[in-house]
Amino acid sequence: MTSAVTDVLIMGCGDIGERVAVLERAAGRRVAGLARSETSARRLRAAGIQPITADLDMPASLRNLPARGALIYYFAPPPGKGVTDLRMETFVSMLDASRLPTRVVLISTTGVYGDCRGEWVTEDRPPNPQADRARRRLAAETVLRRWSETSGVPIVILRVPGIYGRGYLPEKRLRDGEPVLREEESPFSNRIHADDLARACFIAGHHANPGTLYNVSDGHPTTMTDFFYRVADALGIPRPPAITLEQARRQLGEGMLSYLAESKRIDNRRLREELGVELMYPDLAAGLPSCFDRCG
Fold it and tell me: Is the pTM of this model over 0.90?
């Protein structure tokens, strides 16, 4: 691995990581990001991010991780199977007393709350994950919390719903005419614009109270069907056909059905009132136009 000294280290430096890096570099900080391949390394260099060649699935590659004194954003997803997060376990095992970071900001998911039957959900609601992907995220939270208690390094956990923005829209699905659940049977879903998520991460990295948990959502839930309809309208293409829940169980994939099995409305007051995040895109009406111009 290339040795480095950095102010900010991004684990899982994809699109959101690059957006956060823009904010950090504008503040005058040196930013490094994990790169699993030379292709990823070239992408990071082009974005002004120093690539660190390492792989969370290969513990030996993390031996020289430049973590000491750095602010770490942990955006790496868990493995695709199981109910634990071995990548997070590997990550914290590498952070011995000689190279502790100043803070770790973790992106998790609002999926850890499970099905809340359309109720409003605050950070005080006990987690109740019902899908393995959410169980893995909760496992990552738990591992990081325990490490923080032992190491004394402060952490901040951000629970995030669906992300939208340029490059995140379900355009192919809509152009392929795949059906959606009819509006009256569609559960509540929540989302956050990619730019607002990046700003929330940045503010959490520098201003959040240690150990705090934040829901990072725009606070204006609609249904998944409404979202697909609005995107189709914005693209100027026909709305997808609507089917009943009974038909959906026969026609839609397991992944989509697992999302449709949960309904919740995410409360974001702590994000706005305690962390002080002023959302640029507080609802879809404000955010969708940005997905089709150079700023989205």
Answer: yes
